[in-house]
Design goal:
Elements: E1 12-16, H1 18-22, H2 32-36, H3 42-55, H4 70-82, H5 96-122, H6 127-137, E2 140-143, H7 149-155, E3 175-177, E4 185-187, E5 199-203, E6 212-215, H8 246-258, E7 263-267, H9 276-291, E8 308-312, H10 316-326, E9 332-335, H11 339-345
Parallel strand pairs: 1-2, 1-7, 2-3, 7-8, 8-9
Antiparallel strand pairs: 4-6, 5-6
Length: about 350
């Protein structure tokens, strides 16, 4: 009986994080709340200020050092909502609706701001070389960013379910997997009042309300009546919610491509210590490289062996977290450079 030959889904896989987008003018997560504050509507700022002051009594708008990390703040708001009824006999000056509205406006404002950044970001000099490399290598890209830079440049606006790794098979062309969602994705139940021009269905569900649509142009959905359309994104919290079924397929496919590459390149991705979901998926991928992917009906495929891991990030702590997840049997090389500097040297 012939032994099974190892099969690689992609020879090269890139993992893209906030450090990649920072080189294009997008804010880093740690400064996101500070940077977006003046963009919030005045009334929303006042309401959010009261929420922050409750969780952080020392909060002072004139002292940037007192601003909480947005990941911490959104987690605190989620906990507040979860324990709202259990922590008080009646609603006080803040209602559940106030909390939910503050969260929605904050995320909507960030999403709108990111759309505004898109134009100048897409013209950044070093980016075209990276996109050409991704196409040439027919690479898989796992991006934890919401922005639409790679979506538009990699596929020239010809987006479909295969572009996002949501088709039944991953094919052989470049593929962009976005396990934290995307600024141009919306669930069907949000789009009852939106024309279907310039959008496509990228994930079908037996319930139309749970289907996912992607808008082909890098802009937010406009409403003449002031309605807010929040895209399908996973907010940066410690308690991430992956209930929409599209994420099950996304994370399965992320695990698959991370399990078989020859070369795995981390571009500005830090593998945050608080992101236990991502840590788990990477551990699965590294484990499968050495032991083989699981088969649907039992057993494992032939192992493809340890990938060459390259970590491009000036942050040594980030490199150490990735090296720790890889383990001692997978070789890792740390390149202590910004992504844009690495890209310019590797044209």
């Amino acid at each position: 009986m012939k032994s099974e030959k190892p099969h690689r889904i992609r020879d090269t896989v890139y993992v893209v994080g906030a450090g990649f987008s920072a080189g294009l003018g997008y804010p880093l997560t740690k400064s996101l709340l500070i940077d977006v504050w003046e963009r919030l509507p005045v009334d929303s700022r006042e309401q959010l200020k009261l929420i922050i002051e409750f969780h952080h009594p020392a909060f002072n708008l004139t002292r940037k050092t007192t601003f909480p990390d947005i990941e911490q703040l959104l987690t605190e708001m989620a906990v507040n909502l979860q324990l709202f009824d259990a922590s008080r006999p009646t609603e006080g000056r803040f209602t559940k609706q106030d909390l939910e509205e503050s969260r929605e406006i904050l995320l909507f404002t960030i999403a709108s701001w990111f759309h505004d950044i898109y134009g100048p970001a897409s013209e950044t000099d070093w980016l075209s070389g990276v996109v050409a490399r991704l196409r040439r290598e027919k690479a898989a890209v796992v991006s934890f960013n919401w922005d639409l830079i790679l979506d538009q440049l990699l596929f020239n606006g010809q987006l479909d379910s295969e572009s996002y790794g949501l088709s039944p098979t991953l094919g052989n062309a470049p593929v962009l997997l976005k396990p934290h969602g995307s600024l141009n994705w919306y669930e069907g139940d949000q789009l009852q009042h939106v024309t279907d021009v310039k959008r496509i269905e990228i994930f079908r569900h037996k319930k139309p309300a749970n289907c996912v649509h992607a808008f082909l142009l890098p802009r937010s959905v406009k409403s003449k009546t002031g309605r807010r359309y929040t895209p399908l994104i996973i907010p940066p919290t410690y308690l991430k919610d992956f209930k929409p079924s599209v994420f099950k397929r996304l994370w399965q496919n992320c695990t698959a491509v991370l399990s078989t590459p020859k070369r795995l390149v981390f571009l500005g991705y830090s593998l945050p210590a608080a992101d236990l979901h991502a840590q788990f998926i990477f551990r699965c991928g590294f484990h499968n490289q050495l032991n083989g992917r699981l088969k649907k009906h039992g057993g494992r495929y032939a192992a493809t062996g340890a990938a060459e891991v390259i970590i491009v990030n000036p942050d040594q702590d980030a490199a150490r977290r990735i090296e720790s997840a890889a383990g001692p049997n997978i070789p890792s090389t740390w390149i202590p450079k910004r992504v844009q500097d690495w890209a310019e040297l590797n044209q």
